[in-house]
Write a structure and sequence with these properties.
The chain has helices spanning 9-29, 40-66, 69-104, 110-140, 158-191, 196-227, 233-262, 264-271, 277-305. Among the domains are: 3-66, no CATH class; 69-144. It is 81% helix and 0% strand. The chain is an all-alpha fold.
Length: 308
């Protein structure tokens, strides 16, 4: 049976009550003191008709669920979200165009236009996700589902489509920063205009984005394997958790590297009294927190990989 006809818990409860009532009715048909015996053929026919009618009722109930007030509310909510995000995207596009014009005139630099371009792209991605959610709600009659083990909806893989949107968003952000920010910062560092720590922060951020892209690619692969029947839902959960833990580990290690390099300058300045000790202490706390995250991710990976 198609997943679109899966009943909810209320329908299951109702079905159980109907079955119980049917069996009680069958018991009442048995001959007893003062009762007229009913032929077995009549009893069998009654039960068969009852089961058939309940099957029809199941299909009709599922259709009613799909077209119920819950579906109408969910669709209305998502239509409103699409409307708002469409208007928001138009605003972001206009703002980004204005920033590009100012950059062309030399009024602002690449960093300012990067911010506007990034905001416009993210607004476009959010609109795409909202439209996708609306299409899924109309097709399924339910709220959109993001679990990797969620079923297809009328043959369409909404889960993978959302993951692809997120992946493209990450890739756009990374390419934009590498194209405009990283070269400019490297040049400034070479000229001695800014400390190298600022460049290290950007490079660390790019490492985090790369970890996010890798995780999304892993999730897409796991989704395809699950739909192909290569792995079970239980195996899918374990592999998904491993992928997420590996992403956390890469992010934590990147943070450790960035914060560790960034502490060299404050420590040197603290030694000569140029910065208070609280600055170095705060950086050390950040470093310790990143190390704790890395240790936790390693522990989680170890546990998950030994599950049989």
């Amino acid at each position: 049976m198609s997943d679109r006809f899966e009943p909810d818990i209320r329908f299951v409860d109702r079905l159980e009550w109907q079955l119980t009532s049917e069996f009680r009715r069958r018991d009442r048909l048995k001959p007893g003191p003062g009762r007229i015996a009913v032929p077995r053929s009549v009893v069998a026919l009654s039960l068969a008709a009852g089961v058939l009618l309940m099957g029809v009722a199941a299909t009709k109930a599922a259709d009613l669920i799909k077209d119920s007030w819950r579906k109408r509310i969910e669709v209305a909510r998502l239509e409103t979200e699409v409307k708002i995000k469409t208007a928001f995207l138009e605003f972001k596009k206009e703002w980004s165009a204005q920033m590009e014009n100012k950059r062309a005139l030399g009024i602002i630099g690449n960093e300012e236009t990067l911010t506007s371009k990034s905001a416009s792209q993210e607004a476009a991605a959010e609109l795409d996700r909202a439209i996708l959610d609306l299409e899924e709600a109309k097709a399924s009659g339910e709220a959109p589902r993001n679990e990797l083990y969620a079923p297809l909806v009328e043959g369409r893989d909404f889960v993978s489509e959302r993951l692809e949107i997120e992946k493209k968003s990450y890739q756009f952000e990374m390419e934009l920063r590498r194209e405009r920010i990283e070269p400019a910062l490297r040049h400034r560092v070479e000229l001695g205009l800014i400390p190298k720590s600022e460049l290290d922060e950007v490079l660390g951020w790019l490492s985090v984005v790369e970890a996010g892209i890798k995780d999304l690619e892993n999730r897409l692969t796991l989704r395809r394997r699950f739909l192909a029947g290569e792995i079970s839902a239980g195996e899918l959960e374990i592999q998904t958790r491993i992928s997420a833990a590996e992403k956390d580990l890469r992010e934590a290690r990147s943070e450790i590297d960035t914060v560790g390099k960034g502490m060299e300058d404050p420590r040197a300045k603290e030694a000569v009294g140029l910065v208070p000790g609280s600055v170095v202490k705060a950086a050390q706390l950040g470093l310790d927190a990143a190390q704790a995250k890395a240790d936790l991710a390693l522990r989680e990976i170890e546990i998950l990989k030994h599950i049989k």
